Amino acid sequence: MPETVARVLYFSCLSVLHLYETLGWWRRSDWLKVHFAESWNELHHLLIMEDLDGANFWGDRLLARAAALLYYWIVIAMYVFSPGAAYRFMELVEVHAYASYDKFLKSDEARLKFLPAPAIAKQYYRDGDLYMFDEFQTSHKSAERRPQIDNLYDVFVAVRDDEMEPVKTMAACQQTQAATMVLSPHSQPLA
């Protein structure tokens, strides 16, 4: 399942950032919050896909987990040696995910509009605590984006649009002034 592997991007970043923080080399709590919120978002994509029976075949689950484990260590190595290259790679992965969901939406729009939205999607996008949903959207003000979730088409539109948010963050993380550009949407200015 692609969402199993997609979460690894953020696990890898968080692992290296926590290591650097522990060693006293780095301290940017905003980046930890944003990357954790991105992994939280990917978790909910995974839960939605599982609710739609996307993880029924054991072979698919085994392949996804094996790929995720390998992917985790590759991204860790990339991040240690070149954070910019790791962020560029992550940006490309998310652009591909956006394009894949967009293609799926265009080819299956009519069918998806007649299927109900899974309960987990309604809970994540509409009815639950939206703090974490807002947190990974660094290009928006908090509470600015609220997807409509009435059917399965709406769910996949929201998931597709979610994939573009980290693209903006990953692009910002590659900039020389990234430390001041990548901020948690809930950050309070220091007094």
Describe the fold and architecture.
The structure is a single chain. This protein has 191 residues and is mainly α. It has one domain (2-181): Alternative oxidase (Ferritin). Helix content is 73%, strand content 0%. The protein contains eight helices and no strands. The chain has helices spanning 2-22, 29-51, 58-81, 83-113, 119-127, 131-135, 152-173, 178-181. The longest helix has 31 residues, at 83-113.
Architecture per CATH nomenclature, i.e. the level-2 architecture? Up-down Bundle
Order of helix and strand elements from N to C terminus: HHHHHHHH
Q: Number of DSSP strands?
A: 0
Radius of gyration: 17 Å
Shape: globular
- β-strand percent reads under 5%
Structural class of the helices, strands and pairings? mainly alpha
Look at the structure and name the CATH superfamily.
Alternative oxidase
The end-to-end distance, rounded to whole angstroms, is: 45 Å
Mean pLDDT: 88
Low-confidence stretches: none
Number of helices: 8
What is the number of domains? 1
Largest sheet: none
What is the class in the CATH system? Mainly Alpha
Write down the CATH topology.
Answer: Ferritin
What's the quick description here?
The protein is mostly helical and 191 residues long. The protein has a single domain (2-181), classed as Alternative oxidase (Ferritin, Up-down Bundle).
Core attributes:
single chain, 191 residues, mainly alpha, Ferritin, globular
Topology overview:
Elements: H1 2-22, H2 29-51, H3 58-81, H4 83-113, H5 119-127, H6 131-135, H7 152-173, H8 178-181
Helix pairs in contact: 1-2, 1-3, 3-4, 4-7
